[in-house]
Amino acid sequence: MIGGTRRLGEVLAVLSGKGGTGKTSVCAGIATALAESGERILCIDCDVGLRNLDISLGLSDSGALSFLDVCSGGYPLDRAEKHPDYPNLFFLTAPMNCGAEQIDPEAFGQMLRRARLEFDFVLLDAPAGVDAGFRLVTETADRFLVVTGAGPAAIRDASRVGELLELAGKKHVRLVVNRVDRDMLSTVRVTIDDVMDISGLPLAGVVLEDVNVTLAASFGQPLLRYAKRCDAAKAFRRIARRVQGFPEPMKLR
């Protein structure tokens, strides 16, 4: 609050150039870490036709509205699904029976403008790639996290995403290197600095490969409740603090 007036929330788009980077798990981990710290959070699955953010959030059994239900005016934003474990975390899923190119960008933007008034952070789990869903999400987001693995194809695609954001005049773009296997990096003689140099993006965080991410989803739980002290959970909390503007050292554990 500033002078009795609530500050506007920020829209954070979580992107990846290719599938398989664990982007959705990263989005869910950061969202729950922010909610855990007391922030009021709205998560929106924007992967039209291939939604799975509900699984990573531990909400696969919920009957969440789609963001299209809200965009079209059929339901108010306050009907977003409330998380049973995080009372300040809310969720809208992706519609299944339309393409991203069929969604009205203006209506989507209006929904996000309303969400900024009600939430501290709105996290958008974008579809992989740079097609219509990418354009929909990046048009109105304030900040961007590009998720990559440490493999050459993933890094190249992350670099392309960064280039497209720069061409669109977007600022506040950061890199998350996910599913990092330190033995593999040592074998191929690649460092995190190399990943940053090749992608051309500054670093927001590094997340080690962690079997607990898969186990938590399999048991229908958010990672930060299933394995609070695992390596990935610690990494998501550190990234969340950086998103909040707190100084946080880079660590691999």
Alpha-carbon distance between the termini?
A: 34 Å
The CATH homologous superfamily is termed P-loop containing nucleotide triphosphate hydrolases
* Largest β sheet strand count, sense and barrel closure: 8 strands, mixed
Mean pLDDT over the full residue set = 92
Q: Give the quaternary arrangement of the chains.
A: single chain
Structural class: alpha/beta
**Main sheet: strand order:** 3-4-2-5-1-6-7-8
Rg on CA atoms, Å: 17 Å
Which strand-content bin applies to the residues?
15-25%
CATH architecture: 3-Layer(aba) Sandwich
CATH C-level class is Alpha Beta
Low-confidence stretches: none
Detailed description of the structure:
The protein has 253 residues and is of the alpha/beta class. It has one domain: Rossmann fold (3-Layer(aba) Sandwich). The protein has an eight-stranded mixed β-sheet, sandwiched between helices. Helix 1 crosses helix 11. The protein is globular. It starts with 9 loop residues before the first strand and ends in a 9-residue tail after the last helix. The model has no long low-confidence stretch (mean pLDDT 92).
Descriptive key words:
8 strands; Rossmann fold; eight-stranded mixed sheet; 253 residues; alpha/beta
What order do the helices and strands come in, and which of them pair?
Elements: E1 10-15, H1 23-36, E2 41-45, H2 53-57, H3 67-71, E3 81-82, E4 89-92, H4 105-118, E5 121-125, H5 132-140, E6 143-148, H6 152-167, E7 173-180, H7 182-188, H8 192-199, E8 203-208, H9 211-218, H10 223-226, H11 231-244
Parallel strand pairs: 1-5, 1-6, 2-4, 2-5, 6-7, 7-8
Antiparallel strand pairs: 3-4
Helix pairs in contact: 1-11
